[in-house]
From TrEMBL:
<protein>
    <submittedName>
        <fullName>Antibiotic biosynthesis monooxygenase</fullName>
    </submittedName>
</protein>
<keyword id="KW-0560">Oxidoreductase</keyword>
<keyword id="KW-0503">Monooxygenase</keyword>
<dbReference type="InterPro" id="IPR007138">
    <property type="entry name" value="ABM_dom"/>
</dbReference>
<dbReference type="InterPro" id="IPR011008">
    <property type="entry name" value="Dimeric_a/b-barrel"/>
</dbReference>
<dbReference type="Pfam" id="PF03992">
    <property type="entry name" value="ABM"/>
</dbReference>
<dbReference type="GO" id="GO:0004497">
    <property type="term" value="F:monooxygenase activity"/>
</dbReference>
<feature type="domain" description="ABM">
    <location>
        <begin position="11"/>
        <end position="102"/>
    </location>
</feature>
Amino acid sequence: MSTHETQSDRQTVLTTFETTPGTCQDLLDLLTDAYDTYISKQPGFISARLHVNDAQTRIANYSQWTRREDFQAMLRSDEMRKRNRVINDLCRSFEPVMYDVVATF
């Protein structure tokens, strides 16, 4: 389960995928498989959530990691590099951005 505490020892990553209604479900299937079979098993993984807008033109992903280095190691792995090439073919763009939680309400 994700936590929203202000802790400097956690890394939050928000990734936005621009897609089309015709490829949204295919992209969701790939992302779900990546989390089920690989990402969730990597060192430092805490949790993730996938969100889809009403028009099915954007997917947002929220994930938390123990450390920034854990996320970077997963992203740079051969497995994720292969997966990201396929994911890239199903969307106009995607960009993971690392954030620190600074306030909770």
